[in-house]
Design brief:
Oligomer: single chain
Number of helices: 0
Shape: globular
Helix content: under 10%
Mean pLDDT: 94
Largest sheet: 7 strands, mixed
Distance between the termini: 40 Å
Low-confidence stretches: none
Radius of gyration: 13 Å
Number of strands: 11
Order of helices and strands: EEEEEEEEEEE
Length: about 120
């Protein structure tokens, strides 16, 4: 089992940068791939970015490619999502998810989920 806690969300203006964090409870978090997803009320949860267990492989949704960066610090059991050039359409609840045996772009890939952090981008 691993518990995930997201932080760093809030009300922000369009443009600029914001960094979300996903902290894990498990010391062996370095063996877990991590994905970020986001959800708007009434819509499906969408893939945002993912990173492999060692950080050597990353994947991004087309909507955030070039603006968002996913990274990890395994010594701190934390994965980050750096959000640059924020747009109002980035407003959503952001969730991080983890899995010890696979990684990918779909919700079904990940067994463990955080509770989410709200990001609201005003124009």
């Amino acid at each position: 089992q691993v518990q995930l806690v997201e932080s760093g969300g809030g009300l922000v203006q369009a443009g600029g940068s914001l960094r979300l964090s996903c902290a894990a409870s498990k010391r062996t978090f370095s063996g877990f791939a991590v994905g970020w997803f986001r959800q708007v009320p009434g819509k499906e949860r969408d893939f945002v970015a993912a990173i492999s267990w060692n950080g050597e492989s990353t994947s991004y949704a087309d909507s955030v490619k070039g603006r968002f960066t996913i990274s990890r610090d395994n010594a701190k059991n934390t994965v980050y999502l750096e959000m640059n050039s924020r747009k109002p359409e980035d407003t959503a609840v952001y969730y991080c998810a983890a899995d010890s045996s696979k990684w990918g772009r779909t919700i079904a890939t990940y067994d463990y989920w955080g509770q989410g952090t709200q990001v609201t981008v005003s124009s």
